[in-house]
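[STRUCTURE TOKENS]
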Amino acid sequence: MDAHTWQRIDRLCQWLDEETPSASGSDVRLLRVLKISEEMGEVAEAVHGALGTNPRKGTSHTWEDVEKELIDVAVSTLVALRTITPDAEKLFTTRLDHLVDRVLPERS
């Protein structure tokens, strides 16, 4: 991810702040974290639709729909992280490095 990505995340946070003035403080953080679950439910629905596992709906989605929903989860997660901390970019990078190093340690 680059700085441009985080600038766009900041713009989304600002827009959300402006469009939901009734929510404040811990309510905003909670709502943005809960949004991740909502988006994950849409991923699950799209997977069921792509596989055609819901007999009532049949094949109602494509794998492209799943891809879009996964991106929505990622964006919602970054928005929630930025809402919780102004150090989101640094924390994300540090955590990603830790996870990669943990599963792919350098070999001698």
About this structure: The chain has a mean pLDDT of 94. The CA atoms of residues 90 and 96 lie 10 Å apart.
